[in-house]
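pipeline/complex-builder :: batch 7 item 3
reading input block
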Amino acid sequence: MDWRQLWEICSAPDNVPIVGLIPMIVTIILMVWSITLSAPLEEPANPNLTMNPAKAPWYFLGLQEMLVYFDPWIAGVVMPTLIIVGLMAIPYIDTNPLGSGYYTWKQRKFSIGSFLFGFIVLWVAMIIIGTFIRGPGWQWFWPGQTWDHNRLIYEVNRDLPDLFGIGSNLGKAILGGIVVVGYYVLGGFIVHALFRRYNPKDYKRMSLLQYSIMQFFLLTMVALPLKMMLRLAWHIKYVWITPWFNV
Amino acid sequence: MPEENGNGKNGNGTRVGLLERVKAGVKEDVQSLKTDMPAKAKDQIEGLKDPTKTQLYTSIFRHKHDDTPRNRALGVLSNVFLHLHPAKINRDAVRYSFTWGMGGITFYLFIVLTFTGVLLMFYYHPTKVQAFRDVLYLEHDVPFGKLLRNMHRWAAHLMVIGVWLHMFRVFLTGSYKKPREFNWNIGVLLLVFTLLLSFTGYLLPDDQLGFWAVTVGTNMARATPGLGHEGPFGAQLGMTPYNDVRFGLLGGSIVDANALLRSYIWHCIGIPIVAAILMIVHFWRVRKDGGISGPAPVMLASEVKEKK
Ligand code: HEM
């Protein structure tokens, strides 16, 4: 007996009612929503009257939130590029043949864990912060707290080389470079030690290229909360300062 | 009286004979109307009892509608719209707890957006003088204009959320694994284009919200490494506010009339076409990759019995 005969069902007539029902439900929800809640419309565009805060559309607020911690070329260009490339790389670096076509946590702890970290913590949570918590001057206002447009926070930010008393431009560039490269090397080593132990099968299956790409994206993702911590806990603005760009 | 006029030129003798013959003929005609027409009408009504046998029907539907598995499959395969949908599908695919129906809902929202979007286009001019007024006009004067605008706006938000949830479920079920790697990539492009669709629409009401959102958004392009005048190596490569990538996006150094027009064209023509083509490829690949993913088949004892 062909297992396909068992596995597949003749679905055309059985499937049609559901296929028709779902759009109907969506339409009803959308209608009710549109009748009760109106789409926003502000004053006519006025380049001379800056909106404060000027927020990007909500789905980009994760990136705008990153502007607090990173320069625009990183938050606005490098990060979106890495997100797209990283998503595209997923099927080619996840060599685990298990967990294809069904829900499982046990068989794919590492890949699901990494994805949840990226999607929920780095994307959805940042959007929630950007949407509900950021107020004028992109400052932190709890929901319900009145927006004080005159509130100023005197925050003296330092750069990492300042902590070491390095004044020369060359010294700053070299120190920062060492710290950044050092992070990837040391972090990569730690991930290697853990991954090899806890994911021996995946580790064996992966080619050097797959393994390096996985390491790069994982370490870059982890770098975001680390940089945020540097700023929030120690008021460090830049780690790496060069004449052309700062990180 | 055509027969009298027509026969006026002939002799008397033949005239009588002709009249007889014509009379007989007409009688026959009348008789045939009396007998044939009811018979035909009966046939016709008889035929309507099974409309699937009419020529009209068979010209549209290319097969019979008997309830056999073969004909059920043909019913799907021989219809250009339904044929995108598999005739036989994996049983998990009909289980909404597996797909959450999110891909389908996203696609449906795209259709809704196209429909409401085209209607909005009837009232909207992408110019600095008219755009904002057109939106006010829609809100206050156009019949159902406010509903139309609201539906377009909220469906757009829902579509963004739908794409994310769809991607989330595809990840959780590991459905990007072999042989679906490529379709996942088409999906990532669809995600990008969905966001861009939404973003280009944001400017169109020409209000403060859209203006500043797009200003913030495109200011980031200033900082593109090498291609923006404020980005790393930008100045070194000769970038100024008047020739960098942001200038190209906005059609100017500030968000103004050209930016509005470009936004409009990307939003209403460029991106929807690309997205629609990608969707066609996406659905095609879902089919070609073996339908919606499912676990390796397991035979249950109960199923074996059922089959016997
Ligand atoms: C406009 C956006 C999109 C539309 C309209 C769409 C539509 C669909 C539909 C209707 C299906 C059939 C199964 C289901 O409903 O879940 C599907 C499957 C699939 N989609 Fe999408 N999709 C979109 C975006 C994406 C994105 C962003 C991704 C991933 C990054 C993706 C990856 C896939 C994959 C891999 C499958 C096969 C799943 C399986 O076999 O279980 N799609 N898509």
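note: Residues 169-198 of chain A form the longest helix (30 residues).
queue -> next item
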